[in-house]
Amino acid sequence: MVTGLHACQQNATQNSGELRVLTTIAPLYSFTRNVAGDLAHVDNLIPSGVGPHEYSLSPADARKVAGARVLVTNGLNLEIWLHTLTSAAEGVRKTDSSGEHGLIVVDTSAGTEVFGNDPHIWLSPGNAIIQVKNIRDAMIKADPGNGQTYRENAAIYIQRLEDLDNEIREEIKTWKTKKFVAFHSAFKYFARDYGLEQAAVIQETPEIEPSPKHIAHVMETIKSTGIRAIFTEPQYSHKIVVSIAGDLDLEIYSLDTLETGALSKEWYEDSMRSNVSILKKVLNRETE
């Protein structure tokens, strides 16, 4: 899904002739780089190591948006702070729906099956494929002269994502234990795709500390299911996870929500495989 915004100032893309694309989070950067190939300059808005939930806008962000031809977003209110940026950025205003001469804003969640407005759709390779298609269509709209190359690049990458999906499916279907406890509720789509069960989450809402009642429920779930390890996230240090693990004699592992990370074409696939490897180590051992 794409919408158009128009900048009174001449976009850097139009001045230089180079298609400039701005993404918001690391997974979208990987998707976009694979579609763009060498035909566009792709930059990411949120710095590596900073999650979208706690992101704070800066004046430089407005300049990046003003200099872009395509803005690739996840949607589902993940980038709620972006509404303020686009409305406050100097010279940016809504224009005709064609977006022919303005900034094309892509909501990559369009067409995905959404659970309770959960924004972590990229943790499903099936959803990632839909996101890639939305990115492809926006880039063709922005740069129709190179449309065929964008189609070809997207097709190659989609095949890799389909291979990744099949690889994960074949791996997980052999596991006997399917229940796990994550730090926050980000893995619903992943669990749905591969027959896993996110039995409990320690922090239900990002940036809001869980209540004692909720923690007691999580601990009871862990004890009743025989779970022997819990997951934190690599970008955070969580005292509550250490406390629960100490009380129940659990091990702690890191499971990445992929909200932030290295900016490369291969990063998404590598990170998904890394998560599967960690889950395999923990869940297979649960059966021993």
Short description:
This protein is α/β, with parallel strands linked by helices.
Structural overview:
Helix 2 (26-36) crosses helix 5. Strands 3-2-4-6-1-5 form a six-stranded mixed β-sheet, sandwiched between helices. The protein has a two-stranded parallel ribbon with strand order 7-8. The chain has a two-stranded parallel ribbon with strand order 9-10. Strand 7, helix 7 (188-194) and strand 8 (197-203) form a beta-alpha-beta unit. Helix content is 44%, strand content 17%. It has ten helices and ten strands. The chain is of the alpha/beta class.
Order of H and E elements: EHEHEHEHEEHHEHEHEHEH
Strand content: 15-25%
- What would the average pLDDT be, to the nearest integer? 88
Number of helices: 10
Task: Give the helix proportion (percent range).
Answer: 40-55%
The general outline is: globular
The structural class is: alpha/beta
Question: Which helices and strands, and how do they pair?
Answer:
Blueprint: E1 2-7, H1 12-16, E2 19-23, H2 26-36, E3 40-44, H3 59-66, E4 70-73, H4 80-88, E5 92-94, E6 103-107, H5 125-142, H6 147-172, E7 179-184, H7 188-194, E8 197-203, H8 212-225, E9 229-232, H9 239-248, E10 251-254, H10 267-286
Helix pairs in contact: 2-5, 2-6, 5-6, 6-10
